[in-house]
Design brief:
Ribosomal Protein S5, domain 2; Alpha-Beta Plaits; 5 helices; alpha+beta; 31% helix; 5-stranded antiparallel beta sheet; 11 strands
Length: 202
């Protein structure tokens, strides 16, 4: 399967509330890039809602589709985490975490009721923050002579690469994130410059 050129994610955190027969479900959507950000996000919400009955969540991180998790946090199996993950996936989002906090209102909702409530809270939270398209990027190091900095920087800007790190001495090393759909063009252009090397970071 060819690798996609773009992916969808959210940039801003958002919150929405859903009520069902006395129970309150508060959905939080937030962008996360790695496991540390997921843990921070979950801990923040747990601190904010220490008296909540449940803190259910789902996330999907990375582009390979393998890094995801959902948690029912004590609710009947499959009634919370999976419906939340379903909302992330139905919008084809990655690097996204949704947490739904529940305050029990005294009435049991049953399995269909719970699935609907968690799905609705997650959907509402995700509706509050726009999905954004981001290019899939690969990291490279460009090595070049200091005298060529203007030519190299012009190409880096022209092909929408992001500079991640740079070491500017007589001989320069620059880490850049290259959109995969511009890779062949920029490598061709850089090769046209003398003594410029583009090295892929594994």
């Amino acid at each position: 399967m060819p690798e996609p050129d773009f992916f969808y994610t959210i940039e801003k955190a958002a919150m929405a509330e859903f009520r069902e027969r006395g129970s309150k479900f508060i959905g939080y959507a937030r962008p996360v890039k790695n496991m540390e950000e997921f843990k921070e996000g979950l801990n923040e919400i747990k601190k904010e809602h220490p008296k909540a009955t449940h803190h259910c969540f789902a996330y999907r991180i990375g582009l390979d589709g393998n890094n995801y998790r959902s948690s029912d946090d004590g609710e009947p199996s499959g009634t919370a985490g999976k419906p939340i993950l379903g909302q992330i996936d139905s919008r084809e989002l990655v690097n996204t975490l949704v947490i739904v906090v529940r305050y029990f209102g005294g009435t049991l909702l049953g399995v269909p009721g719970l699935i609907n409530a968690y799905r609705s809270a997650a959907a509402l939270a995700l509706q509050m923050t726009p999905a954004v398209q981001r290019p899939v990027e690969k990291e490279y190091i460009v090595r070049f002579d200091y005298t060529q900095i203007n030519e190299v920087m012009t190409l880096v800007k022209q092909y929408n690469c992001r500079v991640l790190q740079q070491e500017m001495q007589l001989f320069c090393n620059m880490n850049i994130a290259v959109p995969v759909n511009r890779l062949s063009e920029i490598s061709y252009k850089l090769q046209e410059l003398r003594n410029v090397e583009l090295v892929k970071i594994a």
